[in-house]
């Protein structure tokens, strides 16, 4: 999986001093509108790639095909979010207005990305409860935002103390949701690592590195949301770039994984692990 290894190298092992110097320069010299415009174009291209430009053999694979539509839905939402921010200038109206729009679109986007990875790891086996928790969490978050925004005759786009408290509460709900799904993903990582170690004679942990990095970055983005949603200036630009690069890395690596044969290698190891479990259960019964 050469393209994922290249991405891993440049993001995680390439000289960190050079990487952070470049991003410090970007955070200092780029304004938020330029970030939004770049994010809008990039998410549009990623959505088109996921929806129409993958090889036929990859696009028609049942598990990966459904997972890619979850990812495409996430990139579409993020495109809409960047588009609204760029064209309607919510940040120019005030920090509260920009945060309101970001939470409405970014939370379901991150949820779909985490769910897409989980769907891939479990070969499509996601329980109804795991689907429902994300949906209910988002509904509760929207309700909290609307209650805070509509108190005392105001609108959600008014900058009021109640609206800010509602946005803090909504950000906390998002963080809890993100940690829940990341926990499910890391549990699956341990299971697949065990299956790979039991089947292959040599280390195959690199097959999962991109997913582990992606889920870890999404966890970090969720952790910092309650502390950075009302940030401005270079801090806001840095955090926006961090989220943008994290999602780009996750989606790009997801595409590379789908067009490689890594999924087949993992499936073989999982099938072998399932057969061993069945044989052990039979031996216990006899």
Name some characteristics of this structure.
286 residues; mainly alpha; 12 helices; 0% strand
Describe this structure in words.
- By secondary structure, this protein is mostly helical.
- The chain has helices at 2-13, 16-29, 32-53, 56-59, 62-88, 90-93, 95-121, 128-150, 161-199, 209-228, 234-259, 262-285.
- The longest helix is centred in the middle third of the chain and has 39 residues, at 161-199.
- It is elongated, with a radius of gyration of 21 Å.
In short, what is this structure?
With 286 residues, the protein is mainly α.
Give the biggest beta sheet: none
Overall mean pLDDT score? 79
Indicate the low-confidence ranges by residue numbers: 9-29
The count of strands amounts to 0
Annotate the secondary structure layout.
Elements: H1 2-13, H2 16-29, H3 32-53, H4 56-59, H5 62-88, H6 90-93, H7 95-121, H8 128-150, H9 161-199, H10 209-228, H11 234-259, H12 262-285
Helix pairs in contact: 1-11, 2-11, 3-5, 3-11, 5-7, 7-8, 7-9, 8-9, 9-10, 9-12, 10-11
């Amino acid at each position: 999986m050469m393209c994922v290894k290249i991405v891993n190298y440049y993001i995680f092992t390439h000289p960190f001093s050079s990487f952070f110097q470049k991003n410090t320069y970007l955070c200092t010299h780029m304004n938020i509108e330029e970030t939004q415009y770049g994010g809008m174009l990039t998410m549009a291209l990623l959505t088109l790639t996921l929806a129409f430009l993958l090889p036929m053999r990859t696009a028609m694979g049942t598990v990966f095909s459904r997972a890619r539509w979850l990812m495409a839905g996430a990139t579409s939402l993020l495109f809409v979010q960047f588009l609204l921010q760029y064209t309607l200038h919510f940040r120019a109206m005030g920090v509260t207005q920009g945060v309101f729009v970001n939470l409405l679109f970014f939370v379901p986007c991150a949820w779909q990305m985490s769910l897409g990875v989980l769907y891939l790891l479990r070969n499509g086996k996601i329980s109804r409860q795991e689907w429902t928790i994300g949906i209910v969490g988002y509904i509760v978050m929207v309700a909290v935002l609307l209650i805070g925004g509509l108190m005392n005759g105001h609108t959600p786009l008014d900058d009021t103390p109640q609206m800010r408290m509602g946005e803090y509460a909504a950000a906390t709900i998002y963080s809890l949701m993100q940690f829940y799904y990341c926990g499910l993903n890391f549990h699956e990582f341990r299971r697949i690592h065990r299956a790979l170690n039991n089947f292959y004679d040599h280390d195959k942990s690199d097959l999962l590195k991109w997913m582990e990095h992606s889920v870890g970055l999404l966890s970090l983005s969720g952790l910092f949301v309650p502390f950075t949603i009302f940030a401005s200036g270079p801090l806001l630009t840095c955090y926006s770039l961090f989220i943008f690069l994290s999602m780009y890395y996750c989606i790009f690596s997801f595409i590379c994984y789908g067009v490689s044969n890594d999924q087949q290698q993992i499936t073989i190891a999982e099938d072998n692990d399932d057969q061993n479990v069945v044989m052990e259960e039979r031996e216990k019964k006899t």
